[in-house]
Write a structure and sequence with these properties.
The protein has 124 residues and is of the alpha+beta class. The protein is 23% helix and 22% strand. The protein has helices at residues 5-11, 44-51, 80-88, 92-95, and strands at residues 58-64, 70-75, 96-100, 106-109, 115-117, 122-123. The strands form 2 sheets. It has a 3-stranded antiparallel β-sheet, with no helix packed on it. A 3-stranded antiparallel β-sheet has the order 3-2-5. The protein is flat, with a radius of gyration of 17 Å.
Length: 124
């Protein structure tokens, strides 16, 4: 076979176990000069209820990063109330969990996980 991944998806949708017309995979190559915004993506049930779409889990492959590179992954709040309080009071140093960038590493980011790429951290 000589198909692109998109053509394979159209020709054999049952292999992917998805219910969307478009291939549910997106590849981005980033090399940010500044910290990127902190994000959280919905799961399938939330996305379907509020916009008729699908959730957005992510995975990153870190190709290169400076020795002091970092990513934001998750948070330190122990309860919903603590999360809300720290957010309202902008206590980002207490709330946000930063990790060193794992060069040549793979990071699975399930839906519902706070995450962001730090400056000069390259991922795919």
């Amino acid at each position: 076979m000589n198909f692109t991944l998109s053509e394979l998806y159209v020709n054999h949708p049952n292999w992917f176990e998805c219910e969307t017309d478009q291939l549910p995979i997106r590849v981005n190559i980033l090399d940010p000069d500044e910290d990127l915004s902190i994000q959280i993506h919905p799961d399938d049930s939330f996305a379907k209820k509020y916009n008729g779409g699908r959730g957005k889990p992510e995975a990153w492959v870190i190709l290169d990063a400076p020795e002091d590179g970092y990513i934001e992954f998750g948070h330190h709040a122990k309860s919903k109330e603590e999360f809300i309080e720290w957010t309202k009071n902008k206590k980002w140093d207490k709330l946000l969990r930063y990790l060193p960038t794992p060069i040549n590493g793979f990071i699975d980011i399930p839906t519902g996980t706070l995450h962001a790429i730090g400056k000069k951290s390259a991922d795919l």
